[in-house]
Amino acid sequence: MSSTLLAVTEPESRQDRKRRTRQALLDAALDLLADRAMTGLSLREVTRAAGVVPTAFYRHFASMDDLGVALVEQCMRTLRAVLRRARRSGAAMITDSVAVLAEQVRAAPAHFRFLVRERPGGIPAVRAAIATELRLLAAELATDLGRLPVMAEWETDDLRMAADLMVSAMLATVMALVEAEEFDEPEVVDVAARQLRLIALGIERWRPETP
Amino acid sequence: MSSTLLAVTEPESRQDRKRRTRQALLDAALDLLADRAMTGLSLREVTRAAGVVPTAFYRHFASMDDLGVALVEQCMRTLRAVLRRARRSGAAMITDSVAVLAEQVRAAPAHFRFLVRERPGGIPAVRAAIATELRLLAAELATDLGRLPVMAEWETDDLRMAADLMVSAMLATVMALVEAEEFDEPEVVDVAARQLRLIALGIERWRPETP
DNA sequence: CCTTTCGGTGAACACGTGTACACCGAAATG
DNA sequence: CATTTCGGTGTACACGTGTTCACCGAAAGG
């Protein structure tokens, strides 16, 4: 054990250090949320897991709700990546899209679990944040759908309806994936693909009748 | 204010009284869950709202988790009523089915809110209970679908897939209904009906190819 | 170099919590 | 009528919580 007392690590800018502990708090929270909901998460627990004293929390967030909203932002980035990646690898291939989704869920399960768990969850601010983000995502998907040849003539209203349905199905799949043991993940993926195919079939035959 | 000290209420059998306070606990919990998740609900709060001393709780439930599972049972009865009522009033009419759902949600919002909120929620026992109940419901719906002329020749596997999709859509609708202000409930109902119609269209054209 | 800024500290507080325990009184049982 | 059963009571305890406050030390800024 050498005892050179020279600074072995870079001095680290002050705002860099702040960013780091802020991220540590977010990570710690996400970790603890593996088996709990945000409601059952205490400030002290988070700071303890982040290796920081309780009062330091307030240097970064006004409250746990605040941290929750920040988590929504972070996790939503991961979810949006699914759409983006699916778009690149040929939006038409349903099987591929579902595969991308499954892959992303496997890569960052905590992010997806957080979203599906807190979506109807007990914290109004978080719930609202997720809701608006999902609305945005659905709108994005709707315009994507509108660019497909089959749906070029669709009313924006119907596009939105179809997009909402697909988002619902996707979230249900996410929940199943997050809950599933890994050995029956293929089954979940298969079912999701067939469901999407069923919807696609419906889309082909849709006509905007007014019943 | 007369002061006849005669027993004005029936003596009430002992197990009747027990049932009554047990139900009072369940009702109190459901009330408090209007704006909270189960994780954020304390035993003392529930007993306070039920007009009973904390320790009395244990005469009825081993823990809050236990009470949660009991709530699942109760709320699921309400949800199953939707399927039953929809079956009676002509299963073919999509519009009617959605109307029945909306009506039931309006009649007992707390029951539905509890189910959608705790489904991915933080309490394993409750989550598991809801999951199995929903599996049962989906299975039931699958056999229902199998009786329809259009789907008579379907594989049970595909029936299950379609039923799962419909349950997912239904639960998404329930969440929207529970969250929605009453004045845009018609919009939600309309979208749900169109989504179901889209699925129905897909079903008509489905053939069990193996891709 | 001196001063200010500010992320992190540690002690302290009032409070709500889950649960154990001994106890009560009336319904149930003989 | 005597006894047992049992739903509900009241007290008590140890514990984790959110938030307060004054304080520290080093980076940032003049």
TrEMBL record, chains A, B:
Q: Which residues form the HTH tetR-type domain?
A: 19-79
Q: Which UniProt keywords apply?
A: DNA-binding, Transcription, Transcription regulation
- List the Pfam families: TetR_C_46, TetR_N
The reply to whether Zinc figures as a keyword in the UniProt entry is no
Q: Where is this region: Disordered?
A: 1-20
Could you tell me the superkingdom of the organism this chain comes from? Answer: Bacteria
Q: Which PROSITE patterns match?
A: HTH_TETR_2 (PS50977)
DNA-binding region boundaries: 42-61
Record flagged with keyword Repressor: no
Q: What is this protein called?
A: Transcriptional regulator, TetR family
Source organism of the structure: Actinokineospora diospyrosa
